[in-house]
Every structure is written in structure tokens, then in C-alpha cells.
Amino acid sequence: MSLSYYEGKTFHVVTYGCQMNVHESEKIRGILSTLGMLEIDDINKANVVVFNTCCVREGAEDRAYNNIVSLKKVKSENKDKIIVVCGCMSQQKNGKYDLKKKLPFVDIIIGTHNINLLADYLSKFAETHKRIYDILDQPTASMDGVKCVRDDKINAYVNIIYGCNKFCTYCIVPYVRGREKSRPVKEIYDEVKDLVQNQGYKYITLLGQNVNSYGKDLEEKMTFSKLLNYLCTIEGDFKIKFMTSHPMDFGDDIIHVMKTQPKIAKALHLPVQSGSNKILQKMNRHYDIKHYLHIIKKLRHAIPNIALSTDIIVGFPGETEKDFNQTMKLVKRVKFDQIFAFMYSKRSGTPASEFLDQIDEHTKNVRVNKLLRLERLIQKDQIKKYFNKTYDCLIRQINGVAVGITDGGKEIYIPTYRYNNQNYFALVKVEDIRNHKLSGVIIK
Ligand code: 5AD
Ligand code: SF4
Q1: Which atom of ligand 2 is nearest to the CA of 285?
Q2: Do strands 411-413 and 437-442 pair parallel, antiparallel, or not at all (unpaired)?
């Protein structure tokens, strides 16, 4: 059996992109470990190297491409080394780089829909030593149930829905990840239960390009908020996070669950993308700023201490100074806890790449820096809001000191407390702010 070829050999996985890819790489590591392979840090020494790629922006593509190319010399000195490229970049049609042509030294190129078959491709390669290029249009059997090798011992990712039906005009994801497909409730429930009760995970992050669409394609009557409620019936000291949410589908039922269920983390990532209604419409986002602000208002009313983060694209085609200033105004108004700001990147095959009113790189650069400067100022000022407030934190030890970590990831030092080597949730009250650092005491 040619798979035995891999037993005892070493592997290294390089990951680009979002949490979805990070989690998929955990499954890739699971597949390779099941073959009896050992993971090592040295990419040059590893017998098998897997690049799990991203194509959401040009920068991610360039980074992956350059890193793959830089392995060419090592490969020429060690012909037995096997290089695999998979993920969104190889799935993309008419991308910036024609991987098949430009990377002749890569042995196996597969896409997003057949990573689950990696062991079969490796087996075939060991038998034939013939280069494999196989990009499928439709998903094959899912990755569900594939063993994961997780790095993080605190937070575990769990897929709940794959793909996206939204077709925002700038976004390549629907083209490389296919249509929305929800996982059955029972499967998700069993996975979360095992992670919490048998593996000791404290945070479960539910993943999907658009988690709020969960259940729409299932036969059983299911919604995202029902799923959350159901997962909260699992016994244990843990919390649930989820990403990513879409403002269009973010209903009051989800706010209600977030407010009433102690097991749902009080943190939310809600990408707004732009502060201009004109741009939102051109982006095909299906909401306006009034709607977005209304959600924020309801969230803050229901959960006063909620941590909010967002994604913003600057320099989308047709974005004028006025449109950009509306984004700045929105950011000043909402005072997000964290912003992920991106310069618009043209993705071939998406509608926005054909728009004639593209913005030059210099303007995009100036705008993104302006936005990030504003965000830093807001952050500096925002730290005051923590004073005298109480947060349900995960208690951990950092550099020898006990620290409470809020659902939003903020650290509160607890100098008077002796850490007992166990991670658990407790209420921490912030009593002091010095040098932009919070400190407090455990009150329960
Ligand atoms: N250019 C820049 N940013 C993009 N994003 C998605 N597509 C593009 C693009 N073409 C950003 C969006 C999304 C995040 C994951 O990446 O803000 O929410
Ligand atoms: Fe892309 Fe929009 Fe789908 Fe998010 S909702 S993955 S931005 S198309």
C-alpha cells in the first residue's frame, strides 16, 4: 500500500488567510498525522510541505506565491520532497498567477473542494510520481469528521456552515468556496460537546462565511439563534463565539440569545465595510448605515459591555473623499473595540473588478492610514471605559501573573491573585488603569 510510503516521514503546513483556513489546516495536519507522519517546524527539512492558500486580497496571493517559489531551490536539491498547494488561490479561475504553469516544481495542486481527499492524492503520487493538478467545481464529501490537530488548547474552531450566497461585488469567496451548506445540528452538537467535556476547551468559535444564514438550507427547521440556544444546553464551563456575521441577517433573535445566555461570549464581529450608503449599495451589501447603527444601538442596549469589531474596505471603486469621510464619521460614532481595515483589492471574476471608477493605490494608502490613525486615537481614549466595570473573564497566567481575559480579548492583570494552573471563568472588576494597562480583582 503506497500510503505506507509516508509513515515516519515529516510534514510542515503553511497557512494563509482567515480562521476558516486556519481550521482547515488543522484538518490537513489531522490527515497527515493519521498517515503516521510527524509535524516539524523546519520547512526546508520537511518531506511534505503543504501550502494552504488564500486569495481574498492580492497581498495574500503574492505572499503565498513568493513563499512557494522560494522553496524551488530546496526542492531541486531534494527531489523526494513533496510540495502540495491547496485552498482558495488554486481554486480561483483566472487568478493573478497561473499556478499550474508557473509552479512546475509543485507536485500536487488541488483546490478547496477536495482537500479532504489529500491522503488519496498523496497515495496516488507515491505510486506514480506523476504531477497532480485537480481542481473540482463541486464539493466532494465534506471535511466533517476528519480528525483535527489543534494548536490552540483554549479556543477550538468548529465549522457550522460552508460557502457564501451573498456575492458582495468585491469578494472572491463565493467563487472559490461555493454555495452555502450548513452542517447538521447533531454533528455540530457532538463535536462541541466532545471539545468541551473531553478535551477541556474554554472557547468554541463557530465558523462560517456568514453564520447568520445557518440552517436556511437544512430540512429540519433550524436557525442560527436556535443552534446557539441548543449548544448552550451542553454542560460545562465554556463560552461560544462565532464569526462572521452579516448585518443584513443579524436579527433580534440573535441579540436576545447573546443577552440571555451566559455561555455566549459578549463579543461580536460585524463587518460594516463602508460608512457610505452609496458604496454599500455598489458593494451589494443589502443594508444601509441607518440599519447598521440600529443593530449597534440594540446590541449595546441589551449588552452594555459588548466588545465590537468590524471590517472596513477603503478605496472601493467610486469612493469619493465624501464617501470616505462618512466611513471616518461612522468609526468616530461607533467607537469599535477593533477595526480590520483593508485597501480594496481587485479580484478578477468579481463584478467590482470591472467597475470603471477604480481608485489609485496612493489614495487608498492615504485613506487606510488615516483610518488606522483615527482608530488608534479612539482606542487610546476608549481604555477609560473599562474603569470600575466588571467582566466575566477567562483566568489565565501570563508572564507569571494572573490575568483575566475578557470576551473581547482585553487583558486585566490581577496582581493580588495566586494562579492555580487552571483556566476558568470568573468575574473581574477593573480597579486601576496605568500605562494603558488594566488591573483589577476577582470578585466571584
Ligand atoms: N479587497 C479588500 N478587502 C476585501 N475583503 C474581502 N474582499 C476584499 C477585497 N477584494 C475584506 C472584507 C471582508 C474581509 C474578510 O476581507 O472586509 O469582510
Ligand atoms: Fe464575501 Fe460578502 Fe460572502 Fe462575506 S458575505 S464571504 S464579504 S461575499
Answers
A1: 2
A2: parallel
